[in-house]
């Protein structure tokens, strides 16, 4: 903290004296992983546009899609105001999940294979040690560099936002029945779960915003551990799978129990998609650095809340295929 030359100053000195042609090369690249899922690619596009518009840092977007969707997302980026972003499009092969997910007739959309991309980050990212993963249904209002600067404690492979660490305005959302403990995600009637000795009242965390260390992730074989808990769920049905996002959250709660660093709560204001009638105060939303519409009521759909805060970053589909659902439209 008391270093004589804070990093920013050093950078300025370099720029001044060496007169580099491309000062951007000097800056650390920030890799951000976002999935572009079929039927909701507009979500990824809005998230990317919000990040890009609110930072001067050097962001490299990893846009992950399924094979059929890749030409569409590429055209969308290249033929819109997003054409100047730095990005790589990566195909995710859902065969890797074969035998690891349980069919859920109640909410098949949660079984969208791209929900599991976050389990496989080191297969995607080779050149960077630290990476950010974001769900597609977020909007970033702060400078993504601040999130990237989240400190990971020694021995931690990731940072998440803790569900008990919510600002007090979340009380309102809590009152509409949101789950914030392990009990909401794991079936404590099952011996396998009880044998873990994790208290059911342990606070859960939301893996929709992740800052991760790939070195530590590989070292701890996190992907293998997550796969083990997916497989066990297929055999023993251990999770409360009806919960929003539960299918991908439960294995993470198990693998990262007691082993993650916190993310500043303002960097993950969530549950905006929880109910069509629950709203936050405008003042509070202005302070928020990242907004997450987790839940059923998505801002590209109708009904939804605080839709204006999302739509402001939306970039229309040049092919006209993706359309916002709005009343009277
Ligand atoms: C990532 O983890 C490795 C291994 O523990 C550690 O040496 C390194 O400093 C960590 N990097 C960051 C950016 O936290």
UniProtKB/TrEMBL annotation:
GO terms for molecular function: UDP-glycosyltransferase activity. It is a single-pass type II membrane protein. It comes from the Eukaryota. GO terms for cellular component: Golgi apparatus; membrane. Keywords: Glycoprotein, Glycosyltransferase, Membrane, Signal-anchor, Transferase, Transmembrane, Transmembrane helix. Its main location: membrane. InterPro entries: Glyco_trans_8, Glycosyltrans_8_dom-fam, Nucleotide-diphossugar_trans. This is Glycosyltransferase 8 domain-containing protein 2. Belongs to the glycosyltransferase 8 family. It is found in: Membrane. It comes from Varanus komodoensis.
